[in-house]
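Case study 2.
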Amino acid sequence: MAGASRRFAEALSQVDRTIQYSLEDALGLVKKLATAKFDETVEMAIGLGIDPKYSDQMVRGTCVLPHGTGRTVKVLVFARGEKAEEARAAGADHVGEDDLADRIMQGWIDFQVVIATPDMMKVVGKLGKVLGPRGLMPNPKTGTVTTEIGEAVRESKGGKITFRTDKQGNVNAPIGKASFDQKALEENAMMFLEKIMQLRPSGAKGRYLMSVSVSSTMGPGVHMDVNDVRAHLR
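Prediction:
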């Protein structure tokens, strides 16, 4: 831990806290400071000018990153018959019905995404207390309750991220790996930012995009110039 703390302190000393970086410079700096012995995940944190206590100002959704997340995602699908076969053909890691529900109830959580056909929600419903707190409960709004099972599996395996605002009005999501080419990270970042802007609630008044920062798993946050980000979005 001491080595990790020294590495973080050294990385932090290379971030100028008196300025806000351009999107390109911020991502370049995060890549430079990702010096851990594993391929660190690059995350983006966005602060929004919303009041999360009002349900009509909640921002949630999904985004398919053009270059994926770089993570291996295990997808579990609740489906039967032809839809189960469609899920397997699309590359789902686990496909089943009550058998999977029973395993989950016993504490098995070896997956990152759960998808279900609408007719399976009666089975999935009893898993709310297990899947809900982990953000894994299938939901039509995020495309994880669907009849288009094959497409949903391929998107999840190929770089689809799911996000929602927290109680402070912030949204966090992975946008790639430190090993990614910088152009790929920039394009992933822009896709995520554009999606957030598209989802601006009608009830949100005044300034919507308040802050944007990026960091790697073991690195410090690097704050972006929001005006520069807005210029990229025009």
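The chain has a mean pLDDT of 92.
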